[in-house]
Amino acid sequence: QFKFESSGGGLVPPGGSLRLSCLVRGFPFGYDTVAWFRRPPGQAREGISCVSTNDGTASYVDSIKGRFTTSRDNDGDTVYLQMNSLKPEDTAEYYCAVGRKGCVMTGYSYSYWGQGLQVTVSS
Fold this sequence. Notes:
About 0% of the residues lie in helices and about 50% in strands. The chain is mostly beta strands and about 120 residues long. Strands 2, 4, 5, 6, 9, 10 and 11 form a seven-stranded mixed beta sheet that branches.
């Protein structure tokens, strides 16, 4: 059964934490990479993390290394983006995306896009 749902986001003070979730179930064979992108206000969309739903191997861009963690549950159906030590510059609309071209951060490599999740970091 195909299911593709993203959830999470909200308002958090600087230094706080949030977790985003992306349910990815029933995709065609080979669509085994989930990435997280974000679009800060007035800026271009950027890829920040990706993970293989097969083995959980993840990659991150430098701006979030050590603060954000991408993981999947044991079934590989749900992918999480745990965001800690949030900064105002992390404010953005976040998206999960599903593709079959491996763990890359380029938007055109992904065929399925979830709804945007607003994350606002502000005191």
